[in-house]
Amino acid sequence: MWYKINNENLLDSPSLVIYKARVEQNINKMITIAGSAERLLTHVKTNKMPEVVKMMLNAGITKFKCATIAEAEMTAMAGGKYILISHQLVGPKIERLVKLRQKYPDIFFASLIDSTEIADAHNDVFEQNNLISDVFLDVNNGMNRSGHELNDQILDLYKKLSNSSHLKIHGLHVYDGHLRASDFDERKKECDAGFVDVKHFLEAIEAEGLSKPMVIAGGTPAFTSHALRDETFCSPGTCVLWDWGYGDKLSEQNFEYAALILTRVISKPKQGIITVDMGHKSVAAENLIDKRIRFLNLENYELIGQSEEHGVLAVKDWDAVKVGDVLYGIPYHVCPTVNLYDEAYVVDNQYVNEVWSVLGRKRRIIL
């Protein structure tokens, strides 16, 4: 049993457990799929740990994507030198980005822009601080969550970003996370169709005599599709730790489960029912109850209820389960699950001798 921890009796529960060798394997597989480490902007919102960022740096990955300023700061603290915050920063976050630039002047920080109003706001704030704001134009090619539509106004916005005194446009950010078909050929077909107008936009940019933009496309589901585009940069994140949700759906991506939840049986309140110390606070609960966790060392069970600190399971072989038993589970969605923990136990050769801080889960580290 690859997941069995020999000193599990020393570990509190519920706990996040990271399998270091498997993380390394997943990093190497990402690089193999991309063709080179240079094509990756790995999204750190999945792992949120400086030590994982350092592992990626050691493997040759030099560019990173993140979701928050705290994640960007965590990545900088770990040694990352090229960091894209994949949000359009508004309000006081623009000033926080300035402070981040001032604290780490040798690190490239960029953010996303999809509107003229926020472009003007960034330009004004960065002009006041005598800095240039590095930006990417966020393109909406169908997900309808953020980004500018590919319409007759998007080229004007690109030209505005190119001509603003205190902005520097580096390229396009195209996220198509809504394309999640289980069949790879179908998913690739959808990705390719969604990229047709992006190609036309790129042609229009070049026709204006503007420099050829860098294109960052997709997340984990589209990774294996966009990796086939020679000039596209890819930003998978879940691959580093992997989870049950993508493990079942994305069959062509053979990553290893590298993050588990360790929980213990704390009660057997009724024949056929057991309770574990794994409630909503321990595993991502945004999905229906049948899509939260899959236990590796328990058979013929069903998670039938959860509250904040408890998980209630119906089990067939009730007599075989003892109060105090340790269960190992694969989260259905690892990214928000990691975000529930301040720290993670790290397994090396089936022993835990190290604890890593999930530093990036903070809303604010220093800045």
Automatic annotation (TrEMBL):
GO molecular function, one term: D-threonine aldolase activity
Any Pfam family: D-ser_dehydrat
InterPro entries, sorted: Ala_racemase_N (IPR001608), D-amino_acid_metab_enzyme (IPR051466), D-ser_dehydrat-like_dom (IPR026956), D-ser_dehydrat-like_sf (IPR042208), PLP-binding_barrel (IPR029066)
Ranges of residues in domain D-serine dehydratase-like: 258-348
SMART domains recorded: D-ser_dehydrat (SM01119)
Keywords recorded for this protein, A-Z: Lyase
E.C. number: 4.1.2.42
Enzyme class: lyase
Similarity comment text for this entry: Belongs to the DSD1 family.
Protein name: D-threonine aldolase
